[in-house]
Specification:
single chain, 149 residues, coiled coil, CsbD-like domain-containing protein, YjbJ_sf
Length: 149
Amino acid sequence: MTERLSNTANQYIGAAKQTIGETLGYPDVAADGARQKSEAETAQKVADAKVEAQRLERTADNSANSIVGGAKQTIGQTFGLPSLAAEGAAQKSNAETQQKVDDANAQIRGAGHELEGKIKQKVGDLSNDHSMKVDGATTEAQGTLQRNV
């Protein structure tokens, strides 16, 4: 989350520099601001992609553990092996619980992205920065998708 805050702050600072440079006629300041903003946006996209890849990996692991646990439970029950059945039930339950935790975390991240997107859109409106408004709309939509997964 600290990386997200840092990237967002750098986007805002870059946008402010760009606007100030353009308004006051300092092309070097405007260019530096545009560069800073662009680098922060790119860094955030990379960070978001890493988080999503980790989430998908955990989902696959949870699904596999749930299936294996269910199979152990069924085999243990079928062949009268209570310890295998209990081990399988516990493995399946742990995997399902972990998936619920991961889903709740995704909901929280989604709500954060929605809020961040709304803020970016407002800042874009105030600074007349069309690309920030578009980025804000994209971030808000990303958050809505995360909350609906």
